[in-house]
Amino acid sequence: xxxxxxxxxxxxxxxxxxxxxxxxxxxxxxxxxxxxxxxxxxxxxxxxxxxxxxxxxxxxxxxxxxxxxxxxxxxxxxxxxxxxxxxxxxxxxxxxxxxxxxxxxxxxxxxxxxxxxxxxxxxxxxxxxxxxxxxxxxxxxxxxxxxxxxxxxxxxxxxxxxxxxxxxxxxxxxxxxxxxxxxxxxxxxxxxxxxxxxxxxxxxxxxxxxxxxxxxxxxxxxxxxxxxxxxxxxxxxxxxxxxxxxxxxxxxxxxxxxxxxxxxxxxxxxxxxxxxxxxxxxxxxxxxxxxxxxxxxxxxxxxxxxxxxxxxxxxxxxxxxxxxxxxxxxxxxxxxxxxxxxxxxxxxxxxxxxxxxxxxxxxxxxxxxxxxxxxxxxxxxxxxxxxxxxxxxxxxxxxxxxxxxxxxxxxxxxxxxxxxxxxxxxxxxxxxxxxxxxxxxxxxxxxxxxxxxxxxxxxxxxxxxxxxxxxxxxxxxxxxxxx
Length: 483
Hints:
mainly alpha, globular, TPR-like_helical_dom_sf, disordered N terminus
């Protein structure tokens, strides 16, 4: 685990230009070099949003050490070199860490201590503090403020769970920022777990759009907890699991609000944390969401592979419901590939696992997964395959079965129903369903639902004369889209 010793940051230190990186660029313009970096990333499966602005920041010394995705790309481009060979500062010096004695605290469960140290650094990667919501380079700068580093150290449950800025807000305990850092204890682990529950509860009711940016601060503080170290190994295990689950939750908020690059980064962070600690449940969860994201981002083959990987690591968990959900993620990928046979086989496995019923092994985060979600995900598969009547039947059943608590999901299933009806040649029924979605959007903020409803409205435009369609289109056009 990371050291609990924190050195003071030096925000006023003038940046030192990275002349080595400038020489490596050669005669290429910053934009041309950025394009070469993006191509190199694709060669190894990394998607980095590199542009001329990023190159300028590196060469000016503003980015003293790249994030891990960029590091892998750079080392691929310049084999045999280290980050320091490329003109960057050592990661430990940038993050303000000092090595601690081996006996200071036990390592997480890993076979190779050297590997554990390396992967711990990856999992505990901090976030940009000067511009935390930069959509292009959200994790480029490793200058952590003392305020963020100390935010979770002594706040207990009030730090994340009880602090609220309104119906859909989260905040850090400001008083905690003024206290010195200490090793995390059981109360901190409990606060982190409660933060995860609260974010999920708020998302269930209100959707992701109003939550995402507010939830980023608790996530930064969660990884600061890991940097501080823990008093006991059992506490450390809870902290790593909680931080991983929080990364997935924040990733989902990014995913549902259309910030796919941010979501991918958060899911990858959770996956690294899971692998470092040998947590198959967390790893399966990270792969599960990665598969869902890949499907939504138009990468169906990646969705299939991620879902299959999730099923492999999930077997020891012993949850049939988890295996059912993962089979549905795989089915969504096959549907995206227009492979009806593969999709049907995965759907059959999902149903068979689901029919085994719930068990004590079911993860806490799967509270949303019931018959309604099963029906809703199957509806999405048939919709992707173009079987609109079948998709509409499952979407209608999903909306009818959903617990009223899950307002966002009711809106999602009803939006799916409206779209399937519209594309299936039933515009009047589609308009009725669309009106119900507009009613729900007064309470729910979800870019996913809004995007689906906008697509339905476009499909219905030629059918304005059908019963109810004109009223729906007019109301939809006059409804402001919430950011």
